[in-house]
Amino acid sequence: MTNVIQLGMGPLGVKMTQFIRQRQGIRTVAAVDPDPEKTGQDIGELGGDEAYGVTIQPNLDAALTAADTQPQVALITTVSDMMRITPQIEACAKAGLPVVSTCEELFYPWDTSPDLARRINEAAKAGNVAVIGTGVNPGFLMDTLPAQLTAVCQRVDRIEVHRVQDASKRRIPFQRKIGAGLSPDAFEAKKIDGSLRHVGLTESMQFIAGQLGWTLDKTEDIIEPVLLDREREFPDVLVPKGYAAGVLQTGNGYIGDEVKVKLVFRAAVGEAESYDEIIVHGEPTLRSRIEGGVNGDVATCAISINACKTVLDAPAGLHTMATLPMVSNFRW
Fold first, then answer.
1. What are the structural domains of the chain?
2. pTM of this prediction?
3. CB atoms < 10 A from the CB of 98, how many?
């Protein structure tokens, strides 16, 4: 049995609890969320299910004290940026807890946040625990899987990945994150302040380049709204004509003047077709397409839970999906 402490009981954390509850050999034994409206609530009842028997505590120390069984691994679903996740991971490492986190910037921080990456790596080694940032994207579809596909190539010239999603099937916080329902001016304002974007595209480009031995001279992250030509109403949002249904985000990684890595992320409510497609240009050229796409919420929960077993057996330090032993659908 693998005992987990969950940090962060927002919509994703609640879904993690539900997924863990459906699995054998893993269970949540403690939970943390500083929101006073959640503190003291049972984690099962928070998600509208039967009581789980674990109440949410305001901080890590309180949760560890309250737990009937001491956790073996921390599952963190709190923030997306390295600045805020670093002290959370340091606290877990100090408590001797390996970490699996859905923090997007943690997936491959060595180029974008090298100082914080070193801090986490040092804390993990001092605590003799492994740390990994993962999820569906970044973590698998637009980085790990494309890099793995190159194993059967004699030569790789460039890599192109397209992830297209109908966001009406995703969580409301995700729809808000991509700007669904915003006017063009409101979309632009959120783009400028950094609150509207898919986090992790640059980290994915750097990861792919690193696996191929490439050094990117420049990366760019281009964000544009997907505007509707007529008013449309969806289950969770009304989008007037000329307003944003979502985001089109393109990441380009250059060597010299040539784009060697192109990642295209398009997520909008009402998108006509969902799919994930990888094109490895080289010898041979490979094209892999997942029709219907991969549901991001389901996949992020699944890969994070599956990684809880893997991280327990990994050497101490901050890992990437390339240095961690292979994550698969493990049945405890």
1. 2-135+298-319 (3.40.50.720), 144-293 (3.30.360)
2. 0.93
3. 27
